[in-house]
Amino acid sequence: MVLGSHVIFGVYGFWLPNDERGSWSEFVGAWELYRYGPATKTAERRSLAARHHNVAARMAAKRALKRPAVHLSGIQARAVGRGFAEYSADSGLSIWACAILPDHIHLVLGRHRLKVEQLAIQLKGAASRHPISEGIHPFGDYAMPHDTPPKCFAVVEWKVYLTSDEDIERSVKYVELNPLKEGKPLQHWKFVRRPF
After folding, report:
1. What residues pair up with 161 in beta bridges, in sequence order?
2. Model pTM above 0.85
3. Cα distance between residue 127 and residue 84, in whole Å
4. How far is residue 182's CA from residue 121's CA, in Å, rounded to a whole number?
5. Of 68, 104, 94, nearest to 191 (Cα)?
6. Strands (E) located in the chain
């Protein structure tokens, strides 16, 4: 039985659909990116980040994006966290771990009435509300008058279903320690409630 899930979603430009390490995308939607190859759909469920690849080619593809790749500042990350806190309180979603990094977000979520794919959409929306209302959205300068800015989160998320206490504990620990991998301090979010 599924008890929860580990969900990762990137910001715009974090992991391109044609990344040679593999992606979860079915197609490349922009001609500028397609010049760097077709989608590299994979069913792999473990992290592909450490897989050897041509970094120069990946960076060239990122430079071809319509907008600069998003890199959340600390202030923007706190605003994203306020959105998660509100969504958790309003929906009854249990968030067991959270790491908001400059280019991607890790969450460990308890089982919920919504499917994890629906939760990811809802959480991305919640994560955007405070940056928009506080005038610190990464694409705020790209918004047309009286319109919202372009989305700053990737459409597709990566997810792993957790079916045991051991899965949950391992995922929670992984997410809690994840900022250290990027030389950042541990994060402590008031909305996070550890399951054990």
Report:
1. 5
2. yes
3. 6
4. 26
5. 94
6. 4-11, 95-100, 104-110, 153-162
At 130-154, the pLDDT tens digits run: 999 999 999 999 888 888 899 999 8
**Percent helix / strand / coil, the chain, rounded to 5:** 35, 15, 50
Bridge pairing between strands 153-162 and 95-100: unpaired
At 79, give phi and psi (nearest 5°): -65, -40
Q: How many CB atoms lie within 10 A of CB 195?
A: 15
The pLDDT tens digits for 46-96 are 677 778 887 787 777 778 888 888 999 999 999 999 999 999 999 999 999
The residue to which tokens 């790491």 are assigned: 99
Cα gap 129→121, rounded to integer Å:
13
Residue type, 59: M
Return the amino acid letter for 124: K
- Check the CA dihedral 105-151-46-7 and report its sign: positive
